[in-house]
Amino acid sequence: MADFQAVVEAPPPRIFRLAHASRGAAIDSARLALPSPVTREWAWGSATGSGVRVCLIDSGVDAHHPRFTSPISTYTVTGDGLDVVPDEAGDQAGHGTACAGVIRAMAPGCELTSVRVLGGGLHGRGEVLLAALEWAIEQRFPLINLSLSTRRAEHKESLHDLVDRAFFAGVTIVASAHNRPVRSYPWHFASVISVGSHHSTLAEHIECNPEPPAEFFARGVQVEVPLPGGGTARQTGNSFATPHVTGLCARVLQRHPGFATGQLKHVLAAIADNRT
Is 25 a domain residue? Predict the structure, then answer.
């Protein structure tokens, strides 16, 4: 049995019942300590994420898809030593390619690296996920996208330690909330930016959740994404909301290098579309 899996749904029905999805609630701006207004122009302006390194831990990427006009570095975890090595296998599941497409659409200038940890069935071993995450933290990627989670309690403590290490190292992890009303990790941890979905079709529309654990909502319904082999499809799930937030964070980091997870959370909350 797999230790963890991506949080993704098959082609959606007409009615979407994602857990940890927006209910349209507003958040009181008085909850945000803002000595001066934070605008989107100040947050990212015309930034494209240029020069910001982003690590996507997922099912790999078809780096030759025509949507990707700039290079993507590809790695995988292999061997008994769980070494991170260059990957030539590409993406056998499509999930990583889809998430990479969203990140690049939101932040076309970012420097994207893929680490393949999921197989064709979107399942993987917990030890592989931990090794990939530890490597990405050691490489000091400013942003790590995790559109996956595990429900296995035996991995909870190790994941908690790793995401806390990332937090203190200035590495921000953006993690998908589960599509179902279950407790899984690492999105439940306060040291990551956790993301659910809303129904807006606007890519930059973001909501701050007044009732976490999912902290933010981004576009996650009927998102057009690339597929391995050159095609595209429309997919639904918190997996695809998460890279929208990762892309926005990359744009913020281009304008404000050195911002850590707490500062990025504050900026996202300050520019949220559901503030009153």
Answer: no
